[in-house]
Every structure is written in structure tokens, then in C-alpha cells.
Amino acid sequence: QDPTAAHYIFQDDPFLMPRNAANSRLFSLSKESGRNAAKYIIKHFPQYFDKTFAEPNIPCLMPETLTPQIKGLSEEALKERIHLRRVKDSVDLFDQLIQAGTPVSLETTNSLLDLLCFYGDGESTPEKEDLEEPGENASEQKAPKREFQRGSQPSGSRWRENNNAERIFKIMPERNAHSYCTMIRGMVKHGASAKAYDMYIGLLNERHKADVHTFNALITAVPYLKERFLERWELAKVFLNHMAQQEVQPNLLTFNALLKTLRRCGGVGRSVALLVIKEMEALDIEPSLATYDHLLFIFYRGADLCPSGIISEVLDDVGKRSFTPQDLDDGMDFNISDNLLCLSLGEKCCDLKDIKLAYRLNKAMEKGDNWKFLDLDRLNAYWSKFFSLLCMMEQIDVVLKWYKEMSSSLFYPTPKNILDLLQALDAANHLEVIPSVWEDMKQLGFNRRQDLLEELLSLMSRERHPDEIQLAFAKCAEEIKAVHEQTRREQSLLEWTGSALGHVALLFSRAGRTQEAWYVNMMEHFQQINRIPTDQVMDEFLNCAKQTNCPDEAIKLVKLAASLGLPSSQRLKNRTEKEFELSEKQK
């Protein structure tokens, strides 16, 4: 792997290579936005894409027909519109068939309910179509893709009162188990948990049996049906007992839904979570990434909880397997920060300050295709936490090795990562690496971050170094000075602080650049911004003037100290008279 290469999703063009995490997110989202724009154009202007001439004609490679081909009032026309996911057209045609006295079969009506419950009585969009496929087992069996607002009940139900789904359900002359199950899952999906529970009671009263997907949805809705933790667990057990009574075999998603509910059951959840895992093992059901994520959340939710051995056992298990998507919660969720196992584990390792656990996690993440569960943002967040832990716990040689291999190819360092690296270099007394870190800061666009500039200048000016290093530090100081003097139309002027001015003056002085140290930083800026230079700055500048034999600069220094009313002005005057050969005029 080329350590200088960007992520594979970006164009192999220097102009299109992102410089930092913000650029990376912008470029990746713009690429996805282009796809969505293309889908929008194709859907709303299908007449411009009806050229299907090809030799030989290969149907599977031809564009999908998005306009209805069957005209008139018929059940076949209704089926076609349902297949094309035209929600409003399907409802209108169904109403017309009912008004005309044309019977609609139970199977077709159930298909229409599937469509309405999936889209929540709203029109389908390309984004929604990318999330899941409507159908009997769609939201349970399809490989997980991104789903927005998953895992948290919305503040207000998106299920309208007496919407088309409810209206059609009420006028159905015959209803079967599929009709009830579709309504229940649609109500849970769109935030009407109480209505879903009432519908389930109606299903039982009609002596129908629910399928496993319906039970999974009901178990997920438990936290929104009961307030107390124990009541939630009791209701979840009721649904599990009903599954046993109706001879419905639980699957992986059943246990994941149960663990997801236990995340919101406090101490009750911690007391029974491991029993759920043992039951999974007894049924020979292998956990998915979401299973482990729920388990870690249950046991490590509170900062005051003592570390348990759960995290180590999870890593032992995860490290032996390469995972495939089986649950929607196995994948990414932009709205839930701890919904991803690798990121969640990374945070736990950082909290526990355990570098060995972090290495084991990293090895597990790189096994097979496990890394694919992290999108670009999550991948950057994971590596950022991992690198911060390295800076905190590892030897500096190991930190620099990882930094060289990770930077730009695996992740884009954040300002905190740069600060952690600078502190690690300081702790290991490897300050000669700072100039290369400054080059990276310019590349990442962090050269105007006041906190980073202050830390950088402070470390470089704290003590003297060999001449070669001092010259490199002075070059960095010169570039930092130029950053402060830049005035771009879209950027505000970066203000000097007293400490930054002093550090830059020290670095110029130690490199023998007396004129720059005096004219650019001291005489000009200290007086302009009404800042007071420290005694160390004054002494270092006087030493520099002595080494370069510049009595005029020393006299300017004494005058500046006197004009600012510094207590050190008399001492500086005595040193100047003693250490320099002054003419009568200078005296």
C-alpha cells in the first residue's frame, strides 16, 4: 500500500486529492450527490432516456423502465404501479378500482400495504429506494445499507392518523396474517409504537400468527411502550413467550433487537444480557457486529462503571472472524455516534488507556473485509482515536512509524492529533522532528490554528538546540510570521499574541537573524499591539546583537525597554555599556 495515496474513492488527480478530513468529507459527499442527481434526472425526465437500441440487445444491461406501460383500470395496472413504487398513483388507481366495483385480490392489496407501510404513506425517492427494498422480508433480510434515524424513536410520530394504509386496511373485506404483520412493522418503522401494539392485539384476537420479522419489530418498540426498566424486560419476555407458543423460530435479528432494547433497560439489561448471548449459543446463532456493539454499550455505558472482562472476550471472538453484513446496525449510522463496533471499541480502549487492547482491535479490524463496515468519516474517527492512544502510551519511534504509514493514506490527522504528536515529541525530547510536523500542518490546512501555532512556537523556543536545528526552527518561525501577515479577502487577519511574538523573536535571535528579530517582531509589533516582551526575549536579543556585533540594535533594545517602562531597562543599559564598544554619540 502506498502510504502517500488517498482513499480509493477519490480521483487519482492531485487537484482532487483532499487535504484534510473536511475536504475528504466534502469530496466524498459531492460524489454521492452526483449519483443522486443523476437518479433524480432519470426519474423525472425518463423521456430523454428511452433509447434502448443495442446490438446485441442484453436486457439486464438496459435501463430500467420507470414509466407505467399498462393503461386503463385493471389489477395488472395496479400491480405494475406498485412494482414501480409509485405510491400516489397506486393509491389513486386502487380507489378507482374500488369505486368502479372491481374486486382487488388479497395478495395485491397486501402488496399495496407493503408499499404504503414501507414509505410511510409518502412518495418514494431515490434516497429511500437505496435504503431498503419493500416487500415481505425486506427490512429484515436484505444486506444492510444506510438508514436514517435508525435506532432512536423520533420526537413525533411520522405515521399520520387515518392515513392511506389505515384506510385501506379498514375497508379490506378480508385480512390475513400478512396484512396485520405489514401494518405492525410499518407503524413501528414510522414511530407509532402504541398503534403497532394495538394492531398486534387485534392480530391475536383474530387468531392469526405473527412472523419472526413482526416480533423483531415489536421487541424493538418495547422501550417506547413502557417507562420502567423492569416493565420493558417483562414485555420483551411476553413477546418471546408468544414466539415460543406460536412456534416461531427466533433468528439473529431477534436477539439483536432484544439486546438493543436492553441497552435502554439500565441495570436490568446488564443482569440479563449475558443470558441472551448464551441463548444465542444454545440455538447455534452466530453474533454479528451489532450484537457485540449492543453488548459493549450495555456494560460500558457509564463512565463510573468498573472495567470488566467483556471487552477482552469480545475482542477474542471478533479477532477470529471476518464479518459480513447481516443486520442494519452492523453498518454505518450518521445519527448515532456509538453505533459501530470498531469505533465503539476504539473509544473504550482510549478510556481504559490499554494499548494492547487497541492493537488487538486494530488486528481484528484489518481481518478480511471488516474495515468495510467503517465509512470514510468513521474510518477517520477510528484512526484518530487510535493515533491519540499511540501518542499517549507508545515509544516515540513507534508513534512516528505509525504516523508516517497512516497519515493521508488511512486518515487525516485532526488538530488534536497534531497536538498529541507535539506533546509526545516533547516528552521524548525529539523536537528536531517539529519542522516536518509544521510541513504537515500546512498541508492539512492547520497553519492558522492559534492553539497549534502557540504550542509549536513554545516547544521550539523553550531551550537552545544545535545550530542546524535552530536554523530549521527559524525557517518555521519565518513562515509562521508570514501567515500572520497574510491578508486574504476570505480570511480574517491572524492576530499576534505577546507569547507568539516573543517566541518568534527568540527563534530569530538564536539563529543570528538580528535584523528580523528586531525590526519585524519587536520594534514593530510589540509597540503596535501593546504587548510587553519577557526578560528572556530581551536578554536573548541582546546576546544575538553581541554575537553579530550590532551595537545599534542593542541601543534600540534599551530605548524600547525604557519606553515600555520595563524594570529590566537599567540592567540592559548596563550590559550594553559593558559588553559593546560604543562611540561617543552612541553613549
Automatic annotation (TrEMBL):
Question: Is Membrane set as a keyword in this record?
Answer: no
Region (Disordered) residue ranges read 125-164
One Pfam family name is Rib_mS39_PPR
* Keyword entries, A-Z: Mitochondrion, Repeat, Ribonucleoprotein, Ribosomal protein, RNA-binding, rRNA-binding, Transit peptide, Translation regulation
Top-level taxon = Eukaryota
The entry's cellular-component GO terms read: mitochondrion; ribonucleoprotein complex; ribosome
Q: State the compartments where it is located.
A: Mitochondrion
Q: Which residues form the signal peptide?
A: none
Q: Which BP terms does GO give this entry? A: mitochondrial translation; regulation of translation
User: Chief subcellular site?
Assistant: mitochondrion
GO MF, one example: rRNA binding
Per the similarity annotation, which family is this?
A: Belongs to the mitochondrion-specific ribosomal protein mS39 family.
Give the protein name, as stated in the record: Small ribosomal subunit protein mS39
**What organism is this sequence from?**
Pygoscelis papua (Gentoo penguin)
